[in-house]
Amino acid sequence: MIITQVKTYILDVSLKQRTITDSQSSVDSVEFVQVRIDTDEGISGWGFNWNYSKGIRAVQAIIEDTYAPHLIGEDPFRHKTLLRELYYKNHFIGRVGISRVGLCAVNQALWDIRLKSVGLPLWEYLGPCKDRVKAYNTDGGWLSWSVDELITDMKGLIDRGFDAVKMKIGRPDPREDYYRVKAVRQAIGEDVKLMVDANTVWDLKTAMVWGRRLEEFDIYWLEEPLCPFDKRAHAELAKSLDVPIAVGETIYTKYDFRDYIEMGAVDIIQADCTKLLGIDEWLDTAALARAYNLEVAPHTNVQQKLHVQLAAASPNVNMVEYCYESLADIWEDPVRVVDGCYTLPEEPGLGCKLTDHILETCRIG
Ligand SMILES: [Mg+2]
């Protein structure tokens, strides 16, 4: 099989719901880059990546100018060799950031070709180790919600079958976080898992003081309390608190995860396939975490379908994040949450193609 063409699309997809906020971002639309790799045997592989600030055109340029010319004429089944060659092409531009975001989309498209050629979805190809993948929900806990909205939305999620929910913290006055978390815990009762997410906004002192105070509400994990590059501060925090520390959505290599783990700076690994170098590096990271008996809880915004499949084949994944529900139907053959658990895709392939309607109506380049 030979690669004949690499085509890219960039899109801006509206959330079709209230603008959502955390301590760092305000989001009303998501940008996508979608990659299609065609072959001479009629199989096309699809991959994607995403961003919710503007700038996805830069990713498209990297794919079209650097990766596509290298791929055309190559055998897609050599995907590990090809990815290593493409990785080194960006030696002086840099191997994280835009280079990596684009290469991850290429990684997915090459996996999609492999999976379609053998007629299996990813989770079946990897070998499942569980029948169901549990979902936890983040959509009820945005920082811009009032306390009444938080409680109404959280109760609505529990009525739908979710028994694990997450809320944002990191308001300018941490006392507000304290009272918001207290109100939610009182409203949802003791039996629902509750996680809190500061989106990296706290400094170490704030995290030590207010992380300790929040522990009285039986928090399942404290997510991204600090700047993700400051591993030493995470290690100090993890040593001083009892609540587990979760990081991963702004960690971009398995080597950084290794260092976090070895420094005792993390308890829950939130590896995200779209931030790492795709399927392969995510699997490496999950295996690394397993060797240290650590739970992996994949971060997602729009990429649930990828992570549900990886979770089904990974013994140390207990649940996968669910949010941005208004975008659930942008994918062909979308996954659903029923009674708090995800359905698994049945179509062969990776399942990362946006619908033709989205590709036509939301395209910006
Ligand atoms: Mg988060």
Secondary-structure map with pairings?
Layout: E1 3-14, E2 20-21, E3 26-27, E4 29-39, E5 44-51, H1 56-71, H2 79-89, H3 98-118, H4 122-126, E6 133-137, H5 147-159, E7 164-168, H6 174-188, E8 193-197, H7 204-214, E9 219-223, H8 231-240, E10 245-247, H9 254-262, E11 268-269, H10 279-291, E12 295-296, H11 304-312, E13 319-322, E14 337-338, E15 341-342, H12 356-361
Parallel strand pairs: 6-13, 7-8, 8-9, 9-10, 10-11, 11-12
Antiparallel strand pairs: 1-4, 2-3, 4-5, 6-15, 14-15
The chain binds magnesium ion.
Magnesium ion binds at residues 197, 199, 223-224, 249, 299.
Bound molecules: magnesium ion
Strand content: 15-25%
Reported CATH architecture of the largest domain: Alpha-Beta Barrel
Percentage of residues in helical conformation: 25-40%
Mean pLDDT, to the nearest integer, reads 96
Structural class: alpha/beta
Give the ordered list of helices and strands: EEEEEHHHHEHEHEHEHEHEHEHEEEH
The biggest beta sheet, please? 6 strands, parallel
Low-confidence segments, ≥5 residues, pLDDT <50? none
Termini Cα gap: 29 Å
Envelope shape: globular
